[in-house]
Amino acid sequence: MFAMPTAYASSGAQTASAAPLCVTDSETHKFGKGEIRVCIENGQAQVTGWIEDLLPGGGWVTPDGGCVIWWITWKTASGEEQRTTPMACPHFGGPAYKEFDYHTTDESIDRPVVGITGVEKLALSTSWA
Fold first, then answer.
1. Interval 40-65: pLDDT, tens
2. Which residues of 51-71 are buried (b: 16+ CB within 10 A; e: fewer)?
3. What's the CA gap between 95 and 32, in Å, rounded?
């Protein structure tokens, strides 16, 4: 679990927020590898990194049939929410290596996440999207 810094009060009536919290992870497995960086500030996050499918193939079963993806379990004001990053999916004509850089409120992503208070878990895995 990744802890979030809390806002702090300065002397007098002014309130200042803590600097953004950034967490990183990198993993290598038989099926793929990647790195991810998540920076959270004011209930929103910027997600950057890359993923690579090390077992690219054609179709569902050769050699592993799965796409490579980062799963993110967010802590939000309303509870935990699990989301994914863009995937590397050469099985369906996509690239084996993919870089990503997006904001969790971007309209271009599926179901934007708001009210983020932390990151519960980051995990490199496969998906059959």
1. 999 999 999 999 999 887 666 666 76
2. bbbbbbeeeeeeebebbbbbe
3. 13
Helices (H), 3-92: none
Beta bridge partners of 27: 34
Whether pTM exceeds 0.70? yes
Q: What share of the chain is helix, strand, coil (3-state, %, to 5)?
A: 0, 55, 45
Q: Rounded to whole angstroms, how far apart are CA atoms 81 and 99? A: 23
For CA atoms 81, 85, 88, 94, the dihedral sign is positive
- Could you tell me the pLDDT band of residue 6, with boundaries at 50, 70 and 90? very low
Residue with tokens 């996440």: 113
pLDDT tens digits for range 29-39 = 999 999 999 99
Cβ atoms 114, 44 nearer than 8 A: yes
Tell me if 36 sits within 8 A of 73, measured CB to CB.
Answer: no
Residue 90: pLDDT band (50, 70, 90) is confident
